[in-house]
Amino acid sequence: MNKKEEELTDLANPGLNEDGGKALAYLQSDDCLVPFFKDLSAANIFRIGVAYAIKEKMTPATSKEIGKTGSKGEKSFGQSWAANTGATLNGFSGKPEVYRLLEIISKKGYVENPNRLLEGYAHVGLISLAERVKSGENLNKIFD
Question: For the CA atoms of 27, 115, 128, 64, what is the dihedral angle to 10 degrees?
Answer without folding.
Answer: 120
